[in-house]
Amino acid sequence: MSRLSALLQHVDALRITPVTLRRHILPKVEELTGARFSFVAVELDEDISLGHLRPIEDKTLQNGWRFQVRYSNKLNLCWQRFVQCKEVMHAFDPQEAKANSDARVAQLLEEISVPLDSGNQTPVYRSENPTLWMALAVFCPVRFRNKYRLLYEQGHLTPYEVALKARIPEQYVPAMMSERMESAEKALKLLR
Amino acid sequence: MSKFDTLFPAGDPTEMDIKFFPGRKSQVSPEQLRDQLLRADAQVRQGVAVADEDLDGNLPFSED
């Protein structure tokens, strides 16, 4: 079983709503990947970026560093959770997708600025979108989607109401409730 | 020396990673993104960044 499959199985089996990053997701991610995280709210220009992930020195850890997730201090809780979780999901990135050198970071920044056509994208850049789907998959596990999909599709629940239950940004609800979610999850489980 | 040398702490870089959550504007330059990261670095160094250990841990949840 892949590490991502193990995480998804874990959150689904909890049978709770909403799934929280602190209590339910983060401990399992740290157990599965060995990565360690800290989080800080900072002043950012939200037009440019809502947050980022970077390694920082931590001499209390054996390897001497941990990940730090920085996020905009102006975000509401649902957006904070989503930005934090998306960045945490990068712990599952395969080796070739990690921006772990000056050259790879420079390339990533170039590609975010002017994306290449899909055939020429680097693995580092290609790892950005899957983590959005992964964040949706852990905050809205299969059990959650199955429970509310029909009500949502029949118009008995609005996107806002679904978002409020899962505590995710409303704009992601249509994607999360679509068939694309199922195929994205299936593909990611194989790769991560 | 590259502008990015200081982004990586000492240690084996194999598992290290730097990634971004997109902002609300689709057209951003590499320099603008880099500046956001350096701006956050400065806030952390100056102690004005707010460490968040609780995250969403106080969010009430219910069992299905």
Give a written overview of the molecule.
The complex is a heterodimer of chains A (192) and B (64). Chain A is an alpha+beta fold. Chain A contains ten helices and four strands; from the N terminus they run αβαβββαααααααα. By secondary structure, chain B is an alpha+beta fold. Chain B has one helix and three strands; from the N terminus they run E-H-E-E. Chain B starts with 18 loop residues before the first strand and ends with a strand. The interface between A and B is large, with 69 and 51 residues.
Largest interface: A-B, 69 and 51 residues
Shape category of chain B = extended
Which residue ranges of chain A are poorly predicted, with pLDDT under 50 across at least 5 consecutive positions?
none
- Assembly state of the chains shown: heterodimer
Distance between the amino and carboxyl termini of chain A: 10 Å
Order of helices and strands of chain B: EHEE
DSSP strand tally of chain A: 4
- In whole angstroms, the N-to-C terminal distance of chain B is 55 Å
β-strand percent of chain B reads 5-15%
Strand order of the largest sheet of chain A: 2-4-3
Shape of chain A: globular
Mean of residue pLDDT values of chain A: 95
Structural class of chain A: alpha+beta
Return Rg of chain A in Å.
17 Å
Radius of gyration of CA atoms of chain B, rounded to a whole number: 17 Å
Task: Please summarize the sheet with the most strands of chain B.
Answer: none
Helix count of chain B? 1
Largest sheet of chain A: 3 strands, mixed
Could you state the order of secondary-structure elements of chain A as H and E?
HEHEEEHHHHHHHH
What secondary-structure arrangement, pairings included, does this model have?
The complex is a heterodimer of chains A (192) and B (64).
Chain A lengths: L2 H12 L1 E2 L3 H13 L3 E6 L6 E9 L7 E8 L4 H12 L13 H12 L9 H4 L1 H12 L2 H12 L5 H8 L6 H4 L2 H13 L1
Parallel strand pairs in A: 2-4
Antiparallel strand pairs in A: 3-4
Chain B lengths: L18 E4 L7 H17 L3 E2 L10 E2 L1
